[in-house]
Amino acid sequence: MLKRNRRLRTNEAIRSLVRESLVTPDDFQAPLFVVEGSGIKQEIASMPGYYRYSLDLLKNEVQELWSLGIKSVLLFVKVEAKLKDNRGTEAINPNGLMQRAIKAVKETLPEMIVMTDVALDPYSEFGHDGIIENGEVLNDPSVEVLAKMALSHAEAGADFVAPSDMMDGRILAMRNILEQNSFFNTGIMSYSAKYASAFYGPFRDALDSAPVDAQDIPKDKKTYQMDPSNRDEAIRETLMDIDEGADIVMVKPGLCYLDIVRDLKNNVNVPISVYQVSGEYSMIKAAAEKGWLDHDAVVMEQLTAIKRAGADFISTYFAKYAAKLLQR
Ligand SMILES: NCc1[nH]cc(CCC(=O)O)c1CC(=O)O
Ligand SMILES: [Mg+2]
Question: I need a labelling partner for 281 at 20 to 30 A (CA). Which of 46, 166, 251, 303 fits?
């Protein structure tokens, strides 16, 4: 034998010397769920160890994240049922929960990069990301509201808006409205390759935002989110979003879509984020609870694999936990 690959694996010193991918807290963005009220830290049933916070406790959480080296949060709000309609009225309320959450985080920690979810589903009485008419999720009227929503988040102080709706043309509409209102420095992180995935279930529990089961309401999001069978389409979607003005593009979910991450890494030259979604979190929790998997090892292996595939950073419910593991 002229080549023996095991030489480079002899001990941890040589392994660390030749290691190709590393995760650090710099790579993590923490999604946060916000609710009305005060003193609330409410565990999400299908996401053990993950919580919804009221604004007062959100501040502590953000400070703890920062102290662990996590420099960005992705905000989601749980909207009260009585505020939901078919037009996203509450989404553009300048004093809405999201707008107050943005201010709360920026007042507590101005350096924390605040990104905000832009989509109508938490605000929709039907649990869809856009306006519905005659059983159809309308594109252009939804884009109009989504652009106003993005502006409203920028006005509240968001650093980046993160449209997760998958309507066509929304990035251009958002970039335009932000420019017209002089928010030149407000960025856009586009969920550009977002798949119609069954892994979003626990998230929809967290926000009570699942599509409702009713006549003339689409049962799923397949007319706007991507078909899990498709690969070329992810490149097409992502290149279009970059043309329209996206600063950062995203692949979502993570683990099942790492081929897409690598395709994008080879085809685009803007930062790529990967969303390790709620179902990916819950699967690990459930298996670990049964004693079937080594929780910490699996968490770090998955985050490392996402990084190796080509992610520049990862939105993950393990952000805080993994940052603590890395401190040890
Ligand atoms: N547009 C809403 C949105 N933004 C992020 C997620 C899922 C995130 C997760 O599962 O962790 C969803 C759910 C959906 O599209 O139905
Ligand atoms: Mg698109």
Answer: 166
